[in-house]
Design brief:
This protein is an alpha/beta fold. It has helices at 37-51, 68-78, 94-108, 127-135, 188-194, 235-244, and strands at 2-6, 9-11, 33-35, 57-64, 82-87, 112-116, 139-148, 152-159, 162-169, 172-176, 199-202. Bound molecules: adenosine monophosphate (AMP). It comes from Aromatoleum toluolicum.
Amino acid sequence: MKILVPVKRVVDYNVKVRVKADGTGVDIANVKMAMNPFDEIAVEEAVRLKEAGIATEVVAVSCGVAACQETLRAAMAIGADRGILVETEVELQPLAVAKLLKALCDKEQPAVVICGKQAIDDDANQTGQMLAALMGWPQATFASKVTLGEGRATVMREIDGGLETLEIKLPAVVTTDLRLNEPRYATLPNIMKAKKKPLDTVKPADLGVDVTPRLATLKVAEPPKRSAGVRVADVAQLVDKLKNEAKVI
Ligand code: AMP
């Protein structure tokens, strides 16, 4: 059973993102980049399924600039067997990524695609769902537990106020939530081993996909700064402030 894991290169979650002075986007020049955290969870899950003898191969895919190779090497250091880079300078939107992944699914025929539930840069939460729709496959999003069986997967997912368990037919798309697992740290020997694993590069045109953006970003702005709080002496003063200053009661 082959598992395909899309991994996105995003600004590291420890970095405080800065909006470009002209408001056209986020400044990523000289900023530390890393694998999207939900995708790390996806790679870990796929590798655990391989270690358990359920999956036979884990293929990591990244779409974007040449530097996405680093993201693929990071996935291979966790345990993915090989990587595919779909290289383009065009800023990719979820629909374009979903179409690229569809082309790769048609070629690679994985039993499962495990994606992150969302990329922490665009927070779109769209790619996995769009891929499932384009493939006509079932989807189980926000997975907190995944069990693969004969031609079927059982997925526990986090929903408002509880957990829902779904059974879906394979092939399918699963997207990971935070509590699915805790990704391992890549060891130095595994980082070295990953450098020798196969990494293929293709262009969107090779896959017959037009990745031209369909949406235009009009403006990106910092959230307004929060003003400092004040300490009140007693409940009466609090109520007075809520009534007369904040005017919320
Ligand atoms: P999004 O819909 O942008 O929030 O992304 C959801 C998931 O789709 C991510 O966690 C990745 O697994 C996958 N994905 C999105 N963009 C890319 C990309 N450029 N390359 C590889 N995978 C991606």
